[in-house]
Amino acid sequence: IYGGIIFMARKKMNFKVPVFQGGQHYMTLDYGYTYSDGSFHYGIDLVVDEKNSKGDYIIAFADGVVKSSANNVSGQTPGETGTIGMGNYVIIQHENGFVTRYMHMRKGSVKVEAGDKVKKGQVIGYIGNTGNSTGAHLHFEIRFYGDKLDPLRFVSKP
Questions:
Q1: Which of 66, 80, 125, 131 has the fewest CB neighbours in a 10 Å radius?
Q2: In sequence order, which residues have a C-beta less than 8 Å from that of residue 81 and are 6 or more positions away?
Q3: If we measure between CA atoms, which residue out of 119, 155, 147, 154 comes closest to residue 42?
Q4: For residue 68, how far is the Cα from the chain centroid?
Q5: Residues 114-138, mean pLDDT to the nearest whole number
Q6: Which of 32, 27, 31 is nearest to 8 (CA)?
Q7: Higher pLDDT, residue 1 or 38
Q8: Is 35 exposed, middle or buried (0-12, 13-18, 19+ CB in 10 A)?
Q9: What pLDDT was estimated at residue 3?
C-alpha cells in the first residue's frame, strides 16, 4: 500500500482498442474498490513498455469532440479531487452519449483543446505524473450519459 492506494502488479493487457500509440499496455490499478480507504476507482490506470519510445503517446479511443482539457499543471496535488486532481487532462465527447477521460498527462504535452474534433488514434497527449498521482501513468475512464463504466468492457480482448 502506498499513499492509500493498493497497487496491483503490472498486468499485461491485450487491447482491441488501444489508448497508447505503441507498445504493450500494462494495467497497474483496476476499476473498482481498489483503495485502502474503501473508496472507488472509476477508471483503469495504465502504463506501457518503457522500451518503446512512441508507447507513451496517448491516443483518442474513438472519434469525437474535445469537451475540455488542461495543459499547464506542473506537479502533483495529493488528495485533490475534481479537475485539480486530474492534473493535465482531456475529456472527449463521442457519439451516442459516450465520454472518455484521460488524466495525469505531462505538462505541455496536451495536443488538443475544447472544441477540437479528434479522430480515433489521434495523439492527444503524453503520459505524465500530474494531479493526484503517485507515478507516471494514464488514468482512463469511460462514461455513458454520466454513468461511470468499467473501461475493460470496451478496450480489452476477451
A1: 80
A2: 132
A3: 147
A4: 14
A5: 94
A6: 27
A7: 38
A8: middle
A9: 38
- By C-alpha distance, which of 62, 83, 69 is closest to 115? 69
Q: Which residues of 42-79 are buried (b: 16+ CB within 10 A; e: fewer)?
A: bbbbbbbeeeeeebbbbbbbbebebeebbbebeebbee
User: How far is Cα 154 from Cα 77, in angstroms, rounded to an integer?
Assistant: 29
Helices (H), the chain: 82-86, 152-155
Cα-flanking dihedrals φ and ψ of residue 126, to 5°?
Answer: -130, 140
pLDDT per position as a tens digit, 86-120: 999 999 999 999 999 999 999 999 999 999 999 99
Q: Which residues contact 127 (CB under 8 A, 6 or more apart)?
A: 20, 47, 48, 56, 57, 58, 104, 105, 106, 136, 137, 138
Contact present, 16 and 47 (Cβ < 8 Å): no
Strands 57-59 and 117-118, bridge-based pairing: unpaired
